[in-house]
Design goal:
The chain is mainly beta. The chain is about 5% helix and about 30% strand. It is built from one helix and five strands; from the N terminus they run αβββββ. It has a five-stranded antiparallel sheet, with no helix packed on it. A hairpin with a 2-residue loop joins strand 3 and strand 4.
Length: about 100
Amino acid sequence: MTRNGEGIERDHGEDAAEIPPRAAAARALPDHPLVPNLHVGAKVTIVIDSSVQKGWPHHRFHGMTGTVVGRRGNAFLVDVRFGGRIKQAVVRPEHLRRA
């Protein structure tokens, strides 16, 4: 199909819009005993699970215990005492265990 004699008109991938954009993200969080249901104020330990590569915190937070202070998408914001400071780690629930 031509448009004003300027070549072929593209559809720009409108068919891709039929799949809900967050469908894969909704399936990514399994109902599994290792994935805890957490609330703000819960004490958690950050333990990196190497079988799940998504949502790894920085390796310096591995083994640290902190407090859940909020959510960021599917991840949790965890306050961790690091030296004399409190730092925030963004961690998906697969890498958290109840303290």
